[in-house]
Amino acid sequence: MDLNTVEEVVRTADPAQWREGDAWLAGGTVLFSYGGAAFGKEAPRRLLDLGSADWAPLAVSAAGIELAATCTIAQLYAFPDSEAGRDRAGEWPGLELVRPCCDSFVASFKVWNMSTVGGNLCTSLPAGPMISLCAALDGTATLLGPSGATRTIPVLDLVTGDGTNCLVPGELMRSVNLPASALSSRVAFRRLSLSHLGRSAVLLIGRLDADASMVLTITAATKRPVQLRLKSSQAALADALSAALDAAIPDPLYHDDVHGLPAWRKDMTYRLAQEIRAELTALAGAGPAPVSGDFWPPRAWPPAARAAEAGAAGVRAAEAGARTPSPRPPSPRTKGPE
Question: Is the N or the C terminus of the chain less surrounded, counting Cβ atoms within 10 Å?
Fold first, then answer.
C-alpha cells in the first residue's frame, strides 16, 4: 500500500532525530500492508529507515543470544543450521523453538526476508510468533529513547494488549536478549489454528527448568502473553496447572476475532497446556506425547541428523501412516469442514 502522506525518508537509527509524525521503518511488512493510519491517529509524514543501522542480526555468547531488532525471520530461521547454532545445540535445547515459531508466520519467503523480530514485537498482535518465542525464553528488550535514555523490559511485559505495548513515542527497540538459563531448558511447543496453515489462534510454549519447575507461556489465545511458573509434584501438577490457568486468565483476556471464539481458545489452551505438561514430565523411554496442531516436533537439525530423520520418517510412515492433525471443535463462525 502506498503511504501517500510521507514527505521524507531519513536513513537513521538515532532516536534523537525522531519528531512527531515520524514512524520507524524496519521491514515494513505491516506498515505497508495496513497503511500509515493503521497504528496511530495520524498517518506518518516521515519514515526513519533502519536499513542503515547495520546491526549484527545475532550475537552468541555464554550468557545467551542477543537478537537485533532488525534481525529478519529468515536470518533467525537459518541460525540453528549455522556453525554457532550447531555448536550450542546440545547445551541449549531451547533452540528447538526457533523454527516452529518462525514457521508460525505461515508467510511467504518475501515476508520472511523482510519482516523483523523487532517489528513483530512492536506490532504487538496476539498471534505474533516472535512474541511467543521471546516471552517463553524470558527475553528482555532493550529500548532507546529520544532523550538518550536506555531502558530494558521483559518481553512478557512489553505487550499490553491486542496491538498495544508500553513503548513511548519515538522509542526504538534495539535488541532482545535471550538468556542461556532459559535456552538450556527442555522445551515443548503447541499451536492450533482453525484453518490449515492459518493464523495462530492458540500458541503455547513450555519449559522444564533446571530446578524442575515448569514455565508455561500462553500467547495467541490471549490478548497479551501470560506466563505461569509451577513447581509441584508430578502427581499433583495436572490439577495445579488447571487451577493456575483459572487464576491467571480471566475470560475477558481471551482474544476474540475471526480466527477463533474465546470459548474455543480457552478450551484449547487447557488441552494444549496438559499436553505440554505430559510431554515435559514424561519419564525417559515413555512413548511419544500426543501433539495437537502443527510445526512440532521441529524438522531435524543440524544437517547431519537430516539423513537419519528421513530414514526414520519412512519407517514411521510404513508403521503408522502419515500423521494428521487432531480433530478440532468446529467454530460457529465457520461453515463446512475446516
Answer: N
What residue has cell string 535456552? Answer: 183
Question: What pTM did the predictor assign?
Answer: 0.86
Q: Which residues contact 51 (CB under 8 A, 6 or more apart)?
A: 11, 25
Q: What is the C-alpha to C-alpha distance for residues 165 and 188, in angstroms, rounded to an integer?
A: 27
What's the residue count for the chain? 338
* Dist. CA 277–CA 99, nearest whole Å: 21
SS3 298: coil
Q: CA Rg, the chain, in Å?
A: 20
First to last CA, the chain: 31
Pairing of strands 140-144, 214-219: unpaired
> With contact defined as beta carbons under 8 Å apart, do 289 and 282 qualify?
yes
- pLDDT(335) > 50: no
How, if at all, do strands 140-144 and 202-208 pair? unpaired
Question: Taking the mean position of all CA atoms in its chain, how far away is CA 297?
Answer: 16
Q: For residue 40, what pLDDT band results from cuts at 50, 70 and 90?
A: low
Beta bridge partners of 141: 153, 176
With a cut of 70, say whether residue 123 has pLDDT above it: yes
Bridge partners for 241 per DSSP: none
Residue at 80: amino acid letter: P
Helix pair 262-281, 234-248: axis angle to 10 deg = 150
Q: Do residues 195 and 288 make contact, with C-beta atoms less than 8 angstroms apart?
A: no
Closest CA to 44 of 13, 71, 8, 86: 8
Helix (H, G, I), strand (E, B) or coil at 163: coil
Closest CA to 254 of 226, 292, 216: 226
182 near 91, Cβ under 8 Å?
no
